[in-house]
Amino acid sequence: MALAKIVYASMTGNTEGISEILEEKFTDKGIDVERVEVDDADDDFFDDADICVVATYTYNDGELPFDFEDFYEELPDQDLDGKVYGVVGTGDSELYPDYFCTAADDFDAAFAKTGAKKGADVVKIENEAEDEDVVTLEAFVAALIDA
Questions:
Q1: What's the gap between Cα 117 and its chain centre?
Q2: What is the spatial distance between Cα 7 and Cα 56, in angstroms, rounded to a whole number?
């Protein structure tokens, strides 16, 4: 059975909630899931995964979450050839219109250097996931599985 691994960082709980939705949607599709907070993820977290997912928020003026800095720096050096990846980001476009979900874009670029295949477009969610976001996340999961 395929294994999806989700690593996330969350300050307000929004991104954690999104990671839980992703876990549920993968499980509903019969995919094994391991979901961990980035503090509990080693550099080789994705080594045995078939599907690799990062869920991150963007801090202040386009910064990565502090908890994700080391993981992010190590990611481009990983050999993830043969794996599929996807990135979900949360942000606040009202407070930070110029930096909305830029951390998600940064992770997308870092993943591109690993040899993994991009399985879905980056999903950007305004703060907490609403009903329409759950539909988007379900399509995101389906695209990753199909890839």
A1: 14
A2: 8
Pairing outcome for strands 51-57 and 84-91 = parallel
pTM greater than 0.85:
yes
Instruction: Answer yes or no: are the C-beta atoms of 65 and 57 closer than 8 Å.
Output: yes
Q: Are 16 and 8 in contact (CB under 8 A)?
A: yes
Distance separating alpha carbons of residues 142 and 77, to the nearest angstrom: 27
Phi-psi region of 82 (alpha: psi -120 to 50; beta: other; left: phi over 0): left
**pLDDT tens series, the chain, 147 aa:** 899 999 999 999 999 999 999 999 999 999 999 999 999 999 899 999 999 999 999 999 999 999 999 999 999 999 999 999 999 999 999 999 999 999 999 999 999 999 999 999 999 999 999 999 999 999 999 999 999
| CA distance readout (Å), 132 to 66, 112, 135, 138 | 29, 28, 5, 10
Nearest to 74 by CA among 41, 40, 121, 26: 41
